[in-house]
Amino acid sequence: MFNFLAFAVATADIVAGIRIALAAIILICTGFIIFVVMKQSGNSDGTEAFTGGSKSDDNESYYGKNAGARTEARLKLWTYICSGILAVCCIALIIMAAVIPTLQ
To answer: Per the confidence metrics, is the pTM higher than 0.70?
Structure first.
């Protein structure tokens, strides 16, 4: 005989585990996005003289001149990837909250 109460309790445990996992992924992605965005350099508008910053001439080789562009492109790509994961997890969590109410 099928025991509906046991099935409902097992389903509630699985749903709670999935919700906790999604919340953990959301927190990790949020922290990673904050870190990656802080690592990216802003678009300079020529105000380095006011702030005391200056362009260094350490990048004399071809590799050195393009290293900054490659790093920025990589950071931008990771921002897009992590933002997409964050959006998918948030949507999944909202759908789960609407479709599967918590069993009490």
So the answer is: no
CA 103 to chain CA centroid, Å, is 30
Q: Find all residues with CB under 8 Å of 96, minimum gap 6, and list them.
A: 15, 18, 19, 22
Exposure class string for 10-42: b at 16+ Cβ within 10 A, else e: eeeeebeeebeebeebbeebeebbeebeeeeee
- Whether residue 75 is predicted with pLDDT greater than 80 in this model: the reply is yes
Q: Which two tokens stand for residue 11?
A: 């389903």
Structure token digits, residue 18? 């999935």
Contact criterion met (CB below 8 Å) for 79 and 37: yes
Q: Is 56 exposed, middle or buried (0-12, 13-18, 19+ CB in 10 A)?
A: exposed
